[in-house]
Amino acid sequence: xxxxAAIVVGCSSGGFDALKVLLGGLDxxxxxxxLVCCHSGSETIELLCELLGRVSPLPVIAAAxxxxxxxxxxxxxxxGYHLLVEPDRCFALSTDPRxxxxxxxxxxxxASAAMVWRDTLIGVVLTGASADGAEGLQLVRRAGGCAxxxxxxxxxxxxxxxxxxDRAGADYCVPLDDIPPLLNRLCLP
Amino acid sequence: MExxxxxxxxxxxxxxxxxxxxxxxRYGYDFSQYAPASLRRRVRQLAERLGCxxxxxxxxxxxxxxxxxxxxxEGLSVPVSDxxxxxxxxxxxxxxxxxxxxxxxxxxxxxxxxxxxxxxYSLAILLEEEGLYERSRIFAxxxxxxxLRQAEEGIYPVREAQQWSRNYQAAGGTRSLVDYxxxxxxxxxxxxxxxxxxxxxxxxxxxxxxxxxxxxxxCRNVLIYFSNPLQDHCLALFRDSxxxxxxxxxxxxxxxxxxxxxxxxxxxxxxLRIYRLAANSAVMxxx
Lengths: 189, 287
Known about the structure:
Strand content of chain A: 15-25%
Number of helices of chain B: 9
CATH architecture of the largest domain in chain B: 3-Layer(aba) Sandwich
Distance between the termini of chain B: 66 Å
CATH superfamily of the largest domain in chain B: Vaccinia Virus protein VP39
Order of helices and strands of chain A: EHEHEEEEHEHEHEH
Order of helices and strands of chain B: HHHHHEHEHEHEEEEHEEE
Structural class of chain B: alpha/beta
CATH superfamily of chain A: Methylesterase CheB, C-terminal domain
Number of strands of chain A: 9
Radius of gyration of chain A: 14 Å
Largest sheet of chain A: 7 strands, parallel
Oligomer: heterodimer
Low-confidence stretches of chain A: none
Distance between the termini of chain A: 13 Å
Mean pLDDT of chain B: 94
C-alpha cells in the first residue's frame, strides 16, 4: 500500500481497554487522522474522549458533524449515530437503522472511509462480540487499503476479530500490544 | 476475478447521478443536495429491497413504474425515531420553552421531517401535561406519504415500550407512559385523543415554501442528511416561518457552524441545540 493517509478503528466488547493500549502506544508525531467506532453503550461520547485523552499522545475528540476530518487527532463516533466520511473529507452523521445491531456501526464507517482514502487507508478491527467490521474491512482491502486484525487469541472477546479474519483476511494479524508500533511504522515516513 | 473496487465505485457514482436526475426530471423530487455518503447507502439499500441488481436497474423501474414513487420516497427520507429520544431535550422543551410559549393564545408547532411520528406524539404528551394542548396545533410534515400514513396511525412495536417509558420519565413525565397507549399482541397503539390537534401533511424541505407561522420548529436529525447549502436553505425556511422570538430545536449532534443563516438564531441551550430567533434577524413581517 501507499503511505497511510488515515486510520479507522472498530471495537466493541472490551474495546475501551483495548483502545487505551492502542492509543497509548501511538507516536505523538502521527499526522494522520484516526477515526474510531466503539460500541460503548455509554450515553454520550464525551466521557470516553476524556478518559482516552489521558493516555493518548494525540488529542481525542468527538467527531463533529460537517467538520473536516482532522489530522493528528483521534476522533470518535458519537453515541447513537452512524459516522461517515464524505468525499470532501468532512464528517457526516446518520440515524439510519442499526447495522449489525449497532449504531454507530463499524461497517458503515469503514465503507465510507474506504471510498475516500482507498489504498491509503488502514483499517483495524479489535476485540468485540459481533461480526460488525468484517464487511467494512473487506471493502478496505478491496480498495487496496491495509487490514490489521487483533489476533483473536489476544482479544478479550475474540468473535469480532475472528469474523473479520474469516471474511476479509488481514495483512497483519497481531496481538494488541504489537498494533501501536505497527501503526507507527506504517504511518511515519 | 473480482472487479476492482475503484471501477465499481466509479460506475456506481455515475449510476447514482443518473438516478438522482431521473427522480428530479420524472417526479420533481430533487435529491442532488443530499449529503452523498448516506444517500448512496440509502439508494443501494432501496435497490436491494426492490430486488434490483444495480442502481441502474432501480432507475429503470423508477422511470417506468410511477406506482413505486411512494416506496422510493420512503426509502430516501427520514428514518424512524424514538419517543422522547434524547430525554434532556424534551425536558428542556417542557421546562424552558413551553412556559414561554404559554403566553400565546394559540401555539403553532411545526415538526419538519416527522417520519413515523414518534416525536410528534412526544410533543403532544408534553403539551397535554403542561395544560397547553387545547390551544396548540402541531403541523407534522414529511416528504414521504407512506411515513405520514404510519405516523397518523400511531402504532409501534411494543418492544419499544420499555425504552420509551424510561425516556419519558427522564424527560420529566408527570404520569406513566402506559396512560397514553394500549398494547395488543406485539403492538402498541397511542391514544387517539393525542392526535386531535395534529395536522399531518406532505412537505418537501428542499423545494416547498414556508409551511405555517410557527412558535416552535422541531427538525431533529433531518438536516444531517443535507449538504451545507440545503441545510442553510432550511434554516432560512425556519427563520421565515418562526414568529419573532420563536424557537428552533435541532438534533443533538447537528452543527450549524457552516450555515450563513445560523446568525439569525441565538442559542438557548447550545448543547441541546435549542435556539431562538434573534431579535435583529431578518424576520418576515407578521401577517
